[in-house]
Amino acid sequence: MDPGILIFLTSGLFLGWALGANDAANVFGTAVGTRMIRFTTAAIICSIFVVLGATISGAGAAHTLGKLGAINALPGSFMAALAAAVSVYLMTKAGWPVSTTQAIVGAIVGWNLFSETITDQGALIKILSTWVICPILAAVIAAALFKVTTAVVRRAKLHMLRTDAYTRAGLVFAGAFGAYSLGANNIANVMGVFVPASPFTAFTFAEGWTISSAQQLFLLGAVAIAVGVMTYSKRVMMTVGGGLMPLSPIAAWVAVVSHSVVLFLFASQGLEHFLASNGLPTIPLVPVSSSQAVVGAVLGIALLKGGRGIRWRVMGGISMGWAVTPLIAGVVCYVGLFFLQNVFDQPVYRPVPYAVSDQVVERLQKEGIDAKVLSGVKGEVFDSAVDLRRKLKADTSIDEKSRDAILAFARQDTVSLSEERYERLSAGPLNSERMATVVGMSGRVFAHEWMLKEVLAAASPAWQSHDATPGNRTYNRKLANDFAFVIRTFRGIKR
Questions:
Q1: Do residues 476 and 465 lie in contact, with contact meaning Cβ atoms separated by under 8 Å?
Q2: What's the pTM value of the predicted model, to 2 decimals?
Q3: 3-state DSSP call for residue 354?
Q4: Among candidate residues 255, 283, 225, 259, the one with its CA nearest the CA of residue 58
Q5: Other Cβ atoms closer than 10 A to 51
Q6: 347, part of any domain
Q7: CB 290 within 8 Å of CB 185
Q8: pLDDT per position as a tens digit, 437-471
Q9: Cβ–Cβ < 8 Å for 107, 76
Q10: How many structural domains does the chain have?
């Protein structure tokens, strides 16, 4: 194992610690703040279920974040994770609950600006919109659930001690589920940028039970999260649990459940498939802020009660933290990348050229783009996507849709199907037929991703996408994820 890789992983561990210190408040803050559960008990339960969620379900999380920018050098991954960790740590030290997703988004955009990589505006807008939708949805769910729960409790006419016991048990189970969801949904934010360069290899410790390199990496990150929970989460727990507004035990339970439901709605592929199969509108699988969800839930309960008791100064501080976190992460990442590259002589990104070759022109013509439109860039090689986009924008005859297609097909980042990476490939998510197809192409080199995709589809029906219907959405997404795994495996991250 290369010691250099382990050094770069330390920023991911720091980010995991910061996430645990901050986001544990989202699942147990209300319980601790209302004195229904002791901090030590909450921290132990949260740590255990965060680790379980990260190692069992972390690898299957859907990430729109990947579309914002693919960090292609390990020092760049190190700085992005470090920038996100610093911003989360600063907010945690101030006692404000913030989102690791927000921090990572800011850091990735900072890397994009430094490396002259184009930020996908559609993906960015989708993520930003969830920062508004998430707390509103959590508030609506919490208000409805609180109304139903209080009505049931009044009708049941339980003894005070029995009500107290049921509430404590409910807070424990809701917190455990929330911690599991936190690990499953946020571990990729912590260690996802390091997956392509994971120093671990898959191993089998029981018959038929294999732990992949990604799962080992997620376990390492989850342990860092657990340490953050145990050592530094109490202050933020108290802010969420009692600083925003006084909460009754039942209100605390409602807030945690509502928070967990929102995480589930934005992360469940099964739910999306069910809705799509029945012709219903689907919820985008976008990583959302657990901090925003739990704060939205608390506000929903407060507004149902007429808004009394809300500490608006605390709410203002939390909102300011949400706005400032991605900005801090982006600035720290950009400045840090400059120092890594110019002072420490580290390659923080691999330059990816864009070539409009004859093959690219031919492929673009299949997309309906006239060859005459491409005459101004045909045969040229550009140092970055920004350079090519600047040239395309100068030609008024090329519309936005055609520009996007040219940028997509001209990207020249070589994929080499080398046998030395087959061990990592075998530990991935490919089924036997897809695996066999890739293995059968050993030694081949492709200058563009789309070339490999078309060759795989021609070689096996297993690599062919289905019609873009709601019922096929899950299959096509799995196919896209498998192809992305192949690309990561054979392109790798060079240091």
A1: yes
A2: 0.81
A3: strand
A4: 225
A5: 22
A6: no
A7: yes
A8: 999 999 999 999 999 999 999 999 999 999 877 77
A9: no
A10: 3
